Amino acid sequence: MPNIEISRSIPTDFLQIAALDRVAWLNNAHGEYIPDGEHVWRMWCQHSMMFSAKCDDEIVGAILAFACEDGRYCLHKVMVDDNHRGQGIGGQLFDALFQKLDKKKVECFLTVDPNNSHAVALYESWGFNDRELVKGFYRPHEHRYVLTRSLKTDVF
């Protein structure tokens, strides 16, 4: 297993993360739609809660959450390069993010395609157990679950 380093994403990471996102997005049911542009990745690297996984200075994974007006955080993206999956990188990224969120004492939510049972099971294993189905979330035929991870009260 290669040596993986997890660290906060920085503004200069945005081009590699945007490239990873373009490839990761193709795995979605509606992958033909254009993912977030490089500009927004530049802003997220600087202004959101974001962590990157690097292997030999190449970003092979990233996780991103941003603050919402209601005080919760939205887990917007988690992705790992296909060649590095199954090595625990996603778990390390979740750990890094949740340590920060739990320290802030905030809830976190995400959206997921209800037909993606693998992702739903993964998110539920990470504590996203409150589930709401929102029909027509993006377009009339595109439904999403909104999964919420409750506030962890045992963190100091």
Indicate how many domains the architecture comprises. Answer: 1
Q: Give the SSE string.
A: EHHEEEHEHEE
**Total number of β-strand segments?**
7
Give me the CATH fold name: Aminopeptidase
Helix content: 25-40%
Structure overview:
- There is one protein chain.
- With 156 residues, the protein is of the alpha+beta class.
- The protein has a single domain (5-149), classed as Aminopeptidase (3-Layer(aba) Sandwich).
- 30% of the residues lie in helices and 30% in strands.
- It has helices at 14-25, 38-47, 89-104, 117-125, and strands at residues 5-8, 49-55, 58-67, 73-80, 108-112, 128-134, 144-149.
- The protein has a 7-stranded mixed β-sheet, sandwiched between helices.
- β3 and β4 form a beta hairpin.
- α1 (14-25) packs across α2.
- The radius of gyration is 15 Å and the shape is globular.
- The N and C termini lie far apart (33 Å).
